[in-house]
Request: fold
Amino acid sequence: MKPALCLVAMGALVMDSSPQVCCLYLREAGVRELGPLGSGRHPSHSATPAGPGDEVARGIAGEKFDIVKKWGINTYKCTKQLLSERFGRGSRTVDLELELQIELLRETKRKYESVLQLGRALTAHLYSLLQTQHALGDAFADLSQKSPELQEEFGYNAETQKLLCKNGETLLGAVNFFVSSINTLVTKTMEDTLMTVKQYEAARLEYDAYRTDLEELSLGPRDAGMRGRLESAQASFQAHRDKYEKLRGDVAIKLKFLEENKIKVMHKQLLLFHNAVSAYFAGNQKQLEQTLQQFNIKLRPPGAEKPSWLEEQ
Reply:
């Protein structure tokens, strides 16, 4: 029987009774042949020594491996904690007051999204109404020129439709400003706070996962090896605790500022909406224009090549 060859590939010792097969494995794996067992042969030293570039590549690969390893361990601990909470076997840290505020924010955001949707629908209907009134006014004006016996009747109806169009454009500008402000409040201000809330909830899960891990290790034997693991777990727990408490403070501050900003914005927008709608349906053109001036709303001048109020949405 031919002497066996051995090679190390992917951390495993491969043995084969055929030297040809072993050499094939060696060439494919890029590992040098160690020679027959007991043959006394030594590996060749003619290979090119590793350069600085190889060392840098190994360093980068090692860093990436450490990152993936830490990510894997963290994901495993958090998944384990999440499942234990779902099935009622694990404990979770709860800040009742803060979580009540977070749930209230989510509910408020859903209601404001409904108002935003209805406001956009109102804008579309007003725009459609303006188009119809404008066309109707043009039709009345044309008929007043072609029907001498009804010229006066068609004439004042045409003027009425033109006045309604003018007031309607003013109302549409106010409603568009109202919708734009609600959109900013919902999609930017509230969403920014909820992004911080998501980070806080993830930090809370990590904190509880490492807290549970530390508690389990504390119940184990206190030998030399366990002491080192316990110190490492304590350090990881403290780091995640600091992160959790920082994000909890950030969420509390953002919730406070959001509430103040919401009240300020909505006070202005609700007053604008009420005054504009009331003046429009009362036929008070002067009050309607004063409302827009009060809130610094500028209408699109006639003939301008800017998009319509509806298109800007």
Observations:
- The radius of gyration is 37 Å.
- Residues 1-47, 302-313 have pLDDT under 50 and may be disordered.
- Strands lie at 5-9, 12-16.
- Helices lie at 19-29, 52-86, 96-146, 151-218, 224-281, 285-294, 309-312.
